[in-house]
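ERR on first pass: missing label on line 2. Operator R.T. fixed the label and resubmitted. Corrected input:
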Amino acid sequence: MGLRERKKLAAWRTIRSTALRLISERGFDAVSVEDIAAEAGVSRTTFFSYFPSKEAVAFEFDPLDLQRWRTLLEDDVDDDDRPLWEALTDLFVDVARLLSEWLPVQKRVVADCPGLANSARGSCDSFAPDLRAWIGRRLTDDDELRTALVFNTALAAFMTAVEVWDPDDSLDELLELVRTCLRWAGAGLAHPVS
Amino acid sequence: MGLRERKKLAAWRTIRSTALRLISERGFDAVSVEDIAAEAGVSRTTFFSYFPSKEAVAFEFDPLDLQRWRTLLEDDVDDDDRPLWEALTDLFVDVARLLSEWLPVQKRVVADCPGLANSARGSCDSFAPDLRAWIGRRLTDDDELRTALVFNTALAAFMTAVEVWDPDDSLDELLELVRTCLRWAGAGLAHPVS
DNA sequence: ACCGAAAGCTGAACTGAGTACAAGTTCTTA
DNA sequence: TAAGAACTTGTACTCAGTTCAGCTTTCGGT
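pass 2 clean. output:
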């Protein structure tokens, strides 16, 4: 990793952590991009060269987390023998683990500024496409509809777990919630389960 | 309905249809709120008194549709004897019928301006809360998790149908897709269905 | 039909997000 | 170490969204 790349990641992280600090102190609306840039020691222009919008700085994933996530997917692609939904469940458990630091922050930001709920959803867009492709590869029949349905439903189940989870509770509770939600969604919601 | 209310609805519709026309002509980004207001014969300020944002004008539902939707829910609340998931499926079929004019427009707008995908999701927020409450009422046990899961999953299935549907195809195809998606999601996705 | 109150409309002036660009600085590589 | 690519910065701009004071229209009671 050359000097240039290292500096870039460092700048990214400085800007992001500064932003999160200010936002959690004053609230999202009360912090301007100007403020963040100044506090992080870069220009407004530079801020926008790192993040496409003010919202992005609050919701984008760390590049390294993203890389870890891709690795996770590639490692898992080999054992085609496991049932899809089982593998999917484990995958989401891993995602939850990966995002364990991240989720409480997100939830706090969204809680005090509900208008950001949409952007929060959008934050999944950075890792979701890979997952979708992964599902498509695993579903032998080349069924567009089924791929989309499995993907969207599994994601909805995951989001439900995140939504219901109380950040004050332990990480294990979240992981258990994720497993429960995916089990229910996989087993069928038409008939009540115990 | 007094004169005041009638005028208001009329203005709402004028602004909205003007906006949609301009947007479909020039694309979302190439139309300013100024343009829309001018073309609709109101001031910029008035525009923002009707719609909270430029995006909202492209995605908010017609007040009358919303009212019809609420009626639909109330009518359906009586027959508690039908299985929940069946009632839910019919409900979404009705929603699809209600939005049949609307969906193709949405899809076109989003297609030529992908950044709006999040806002498009948000458009469900106007009718979703009612649905969620409805589900909560139907689930006898007062289970927060289960309510959220059923709601999110059903919505995801519905969105999948919309996503896969080609607006050039007939409305019946959409309705059939909605039924298929909800059936699959309800029956359980863990095991492949024919 | 009239009047006071309430609701709606408007223009002006403001803040802040996001973009474009030209000029300067720092890293890379040959 | 020199040429060039990549990064940073200030400036100047457009446009979304808010606030507010003053005007017009509608409403309800008389």
